[in-house]
Amino acid sequence: MHSTRLEILKLIHQSPALKAEDSSKKVSDYYGELTFGIQELEAAVSSQVLNAYKAALSGKESMDMANAQKIADAVKDWAIAKGATHFTHWFQPLTGLTAEKHDSFLSFDFKTLKYVEKFNASQLIMSEPDASSFPSGGTRSTFEARGYTAWDLSSPMFIVENAGAKILCIPSVFVSYTGNALDTKMSLLRSMNLLSKVATEFLNLIGDKKVESVTTTIGTEQEYFLVDRAYFKARPDLIMTGRTLQGAGMPRGQQLEDHYFGSIPPRVQAFMADFDKELYRLGIPAKTRHNEVAPGQFEIAPIFEVANIASDHNMLLMEVLRRKAQDHGFECLLHEKPFAGINGSGKHNNWSMATSTGENLLEPGKTPHQNVRFLAVLSVVLKAVFNRQVALRASVASHGNDHRLGANEAPPAIISVFVGDLLSKILSSLERGEDLSKTSAEQVMITFGLNQLPSLPKDNTDRNRTSPFAFTGNKFEFRAVGSSQNVSLPITILNAAVAESFQEFCVRLKTKSAQAVSNDSAVLEIAREFINESKAIRFEGNGYSQEWKEEAKKRGLFELLTTPSSLKTFGKEEHHTFLTKSEILKDEEFQTILHVQYERYSKKIAIEANSLIQLSKQFILPAAFEAQKDYASSVKAVESLGESPASLSAQRTYLKNLTDLIDECFAKIQTLKKDLGEAEKAEEGYTQAAIFAEKVVPSMGLLRQVLDQIEDRVSDNHWPLPKYQEMLFTR
Ligand code: ADP
Ligand code: MG
Q1: Does a structural domain hold residue 74?
Q2: How many angstroms separate the alpha carbon of residue 461 from the centre of ligand 2?
Q3: Which of 475, 478, 479 has most ligand 1 atoms within 8 Å of its beta carbon, as the pocket-test mutant?
Q4: CATH number, domain at 614?
Q5: Best label site of 176, 486, 509, 518, fewest CB within 10 Å?
Q6: Residue 342, class by beta-carbon neighbours within 10 Å (0-12 exposed, 13-18 middle, 19+ buried)?
Q7: For ligand 1, is residue 474 a contact (CB within 6 Å)?
Q8: Which residues lie across from 625 on neighbouring strands?
Q9: Domain containing residue 65: CATH number
Q10: Residue 275: inside a domain
Q11: What distance in angstroms lies between residue 460's CA and the mean position of ligand 2's atoms?
Q12: 12-26 confidence digits (pLDDT tens)
């Protein structure tokens, strides 16, 4: 074994395994101790201030500075008592990460001539980070290179502890001086408001008059890999790009399927316990944790929450995940495809809608009316996904996710919806349905067996893992979202699509119910129309199969394999004006998102290509030369003994093969450099991204193939890079 890898192995085996922090407290004792929510506020301010806060929260009134100052004081005292020294507006620029700039509470008091801790209402409400270095798609001219962050009242403030430093974080939106969103949260909030408005209108129309609002609920299942930090540090590709750009296959991958739900390794268990504990302290309701399909892959899922909070929490969860993993000597990989040949990581987004009266709109009901409503909502979602498949596909497009969606992996690049056996049957019979206007609602129930629905089995036995969008009992699961991605955009698009579909439903219902015998039958009739019109989007079979690709094409569904092709299609008016018309995005904001996505895609691939070239030149070729020397001297040594050439066939073959591979590697590096040069010179935007996708990415793939073969041919003692089996099976 090469000395680098041997040292790492020794290090891992000699370092004592960390145990989870001891805790005699029960979770509910410390749950949320690092968050400043409504309860903390209630305890610290007068009822008048509290009411002002609540009024602002509901959007009825804006808060005046005097009340805001009371809140700022309360938060400051709370944070300082917890040991915080700094505060920051915590926001989510279009880079997909979170951003923060710390300011201390310290200020000079001119009355007492002393330094004291202060926190002004204006600092709580607004802050001005320099927006010029965040991607904004060139929509802002330099003279107004200012953006500001504004406190998002609906998401609780929290304290982040990092290596002993404690910082008060104020969840915020990030907008330009002209009021354009520069982050992913503004549009998410707008989409939630719109969905609430139109879903409420729909519910009121169909007879649920008590409903006043509807919230979007989200539960994110986060997948990730853990590798030992020492291995991570010895892989420049992992450090620079988050994924391995090279690595020969292993004799054993995930074919035994023994990792999934297998027992969690003790070292990982200790990490998970500490990780969960930190999430609880931050008020993130972690619920399930388990191994995933691939070796070294795991999952964490919190209990679902209101969408913008769930989205904030997911961003925070990813940060805590990285940090806690490091505390336990791991590096957490959130990339969609860290290792070739085994499963990548996604982030299943469980999505539903809850009414102000406490009902889940995707829950099959107990009464005939509830079932009619359930079917109608289902039809609304089906139609939304059918109509807006391109936008949904584009919302999860990224260089990392292309490895999953474009390749033979879950889920495919064709957006389709899986509803399961029973619902499929019901939808099909509804589709074929008789003239419903002549039938009473009750009769329809009996005809279609809808009274059976309340006992709809909620187990997941017939779940289809290959579907990008699946109904799972009482929610939809958008599975195409990438593991490293901020969920705001996909949820925004989904909400917008569903809102549009609800609106259409209401329009038709208003015309129809004037003539309809009963409201429920009119509702069912429109549901039937929606189900018919969106029929092509429903698919229950194997999403990976070649047949599905052909079938989908016949049905006229889109298969957008790469990020540039998805973005280009999304850029066509017919696929995105539903967002601008509904004012979820201004046209300028939409163009910004597109621009930033193209830019990020191109930059990330350029970094990968450069890293791969570096890896080849500085690590792999030198190792290959060493091995080549070994074979050559072996040949020479044996020849010097006067042996016949026949007895040298092994050495000679190895030498020849390796020499050929070295030549090939050299040639492939040149091609990659040429393609990279061409891409870098191209016009930014689609043109450039397309060259990256069509030339650079394939060239990288071809070079990689050679590198992987070289790994196979170089003896273990010359190979410096940690191998797949070491990274994935040592812990
Ligand atoms: P799975 O079998 O896919 O792991 P779970 O029942 O564990 O399914 O749920 C996965 C996620 O779905 C969890 O985060 C859970 O809280 C969330 N979830 C459950 N109900 C809803 C809902 N009504 N809206 C949004 N998310 C939900
Ligand atoms: Mg799931």
Answers
A1: yes
A2: 12
A3: 475
A4: 1.20.120.1560
A5: 518
A6: buried
A7: yes
A8: none
A9: 3.10.20.70
A10: no
A11: 9
A12: 888 877 888 877 889
